[in-house]
Amino acid sequence: MFAYQPALPIPNGKTCLWLFLSTEIMFFAGLIGTYIVLRFGAIAWPAPHDVHLSEPIGAFNTFVLICSSVTIVLALEAAKMSQTTKAKGFLLLTLLLGGVFLGVKAYEYQQKFSHGIYPTKPHGLVHDKADLYYVAAVRQRLNDLRTEFTQKNEPIRKPIDEISKMVDDAELAMRNEPASEQGRIKAMELAFAIYPPHDHNSVAHAAAAGAVPESAVMRLVAFQQNAPQDGESHDAGHAQGFNDRYPWLRLPIMIPGGPLWASTYFLLTGFHALHVLVGLIVFALMLFITLDRARANLVENIGLYWHFVDLVWIFLFPLLYLF
After folding, report:
1. Which end of the chain is less enclosed by CB atoms within 10 A, N or C?
2. Which of the residue ranges 13-22, 155-164, 282-291 would you say has the lowest mean pLDDT?
3. How many CB atoms lie within 10 A of CB 297?
4. First to last CA, the chain
């Protein structure tokens, strides 16, 4: 005859962990739900290559995290059979895979920072649209560079003067009789001069979509700061432009929906990376204890937490990288 069990038929540690995970589920559900509302309610949203996101790198990181969930299960099975050395080996492998995930994420962050994509100003160089405020930001940056470099440094001053001419001409087209037919013709001529007409971002495409030619000129100038020049190629899908040819320029860039994207991206991935870091710290501490059958519950509890972290990323990867 079985004795009456007055409490839940699971250890207290697992009960507390499930209660903790329930609060984490609500936390990430709120973050992901907010992202979905902002994403599909936004007028414009950047494509992955516009913000230097690489789908293959994201897929690789997803694969790494899934493999780490497998290794923690193998560590649990080894602990249940009191195979302490084997359990620690799989736990160490899980720790290493989690470290690889964070290392790849750090590389992705570095790619954003190197292109001036930050969640907040003043470090961020991203502007939502190419308007006169954007023109003023570009001109201010160029003026700062002029004061920094001397007249003798001709190779450095040449791109500065070239971009200044483009910005001045574009601003003139934006301000000069925007409603007149003559102003529209001037704007079209300028746009074709500074950007290849065969490109999908040419003024012909903008005009066909109903865009105002004068503002399209400035958009093209802004895009050229961070896009392929004529004859150049994409680097792993990432844009190549003035800021890539001359990293010291760090000109403001125009990415429609970019500031909102940066805020949501760094918020979601940052909190997830923090949870991964907590898991790795626990894994490192567990390497100093004996992982036998008596400690199998401890391995199972941290494994449940790690599976939750993995599951959250399974939702984040398609939302951030594929849509």
Report:
1. N
2. 155-164
3. 17
4. 57
Question: pLDDT grade, residue 195 (50/70/90)?
Answer: very low
Which residue type sits at 309? Answer: V
Sequence-separated (6 or more) residues with CB below 8 Å from residue 236: 54
Distance, CA of 136 to CA of 251 (rounded, Å): 11
Question: Cα dist. 288→68, 84, 163, 234, 282 in Å?
Answer: 20, 11, 59, 48, 11
Residue 228 and residue 240 in contact, taking contact as beta carbons nearer than 8 Å: yes
H or E element that contains 22 = helix 12-41
Contact 243, 226 (CB under 8 A): yes
> What span, in angstroms and rounded, lies between the C-alpha atoms of 115 and 105?
16
What Cα–Cα distance (Å) separates residue 50 from each residue in 91, 162, 247, 295? 38, 23, 17, 48
Q: For residue 227, is pLDDT > 90?
A: no
Determine contact, residues 55/269, Cβ cutoff 8 Å.
Answer: no
Inform me whether the pLDDT recorded for 142 exceeds 80.
no
- What pLDDT score does 236 carry? 39
Q: What pTM, to 2 d.p., does this model score? A: 0.74
- Residue 127: strand, helix, or coil: strand
Q: Is 253 helix (H, G, I), strand (E, B) or coil?
A: strand
